[in-house]
Amino acid sequence: MAWLTLQDLTVDLGGRDVVRGVSAEVGAGELIVIVGPNGAGKTTLLRTIAGLVTPRSGTVRVMGHDPASAARRVIARDLAYLPQQYELAFPFAVEEVVLLGRYARQRGLGLASAADLAAAHEAMTACDVMELAARRFDELSGGEARRVIIAQALCQGAKCLLLDEPTAGLDPAHARAVFAMLRAQCDRGAAAIIVTHDLDLALRYAGALWLVAGGRLAARGAPGEVLTGIATREAFGVDIHVGELPAGGRFAVPA
For the whole model, what pTM was predicted? Predict the structure, then answer.
């Protein structure tokens, strides 16, 4: 069974179809990267999958549930969503912010169990923020805060991860480390859908690439083939060059 199923999904915002007729399936172990120009509908598509936007027509199913109507605690056990923007009104410590990801698995008074703390520490270590555990979240740099929120999503223990621009504001080393970590999560059985404008990271780590243009799924398939295809050239208005690195691997840059 596919963990995520989209069937003829269309989303209307302000009288305009922002997402149009998208159908796809994502299963265990898959890392899907969504690319496309600004305003193409990428974020709306991700928010609809997360159940935060109700489609005009079509269906979304996450582990068999409709995320728009199922109880949030039920959906949160299977799906974690990282938005582009994240704000907290209170000066929580980093460890407390990461532990917020465990709410769907807590009972009673919602106090952190030994399993919750172990999951939080594992996630913070994976995102290289363990040394920040006692720091106030509102005192962190933008890049540090971003890694903490990724750790919160991992701490949730969900099978499906939705991440909107997870490496925005990160330096190159940490951006690459985040994608490598997400690749490792998928290799252990998770599924991830990532929206990014970093075509190089998309090429290096995606199992499959989805090109969204004009609200439609204009192309999908192997990253190198999608990036060098006609649909990508038309969507971005530039050619994308895919080359070989001397030490092995490939890179992608606008030609």
Answer: 0.92
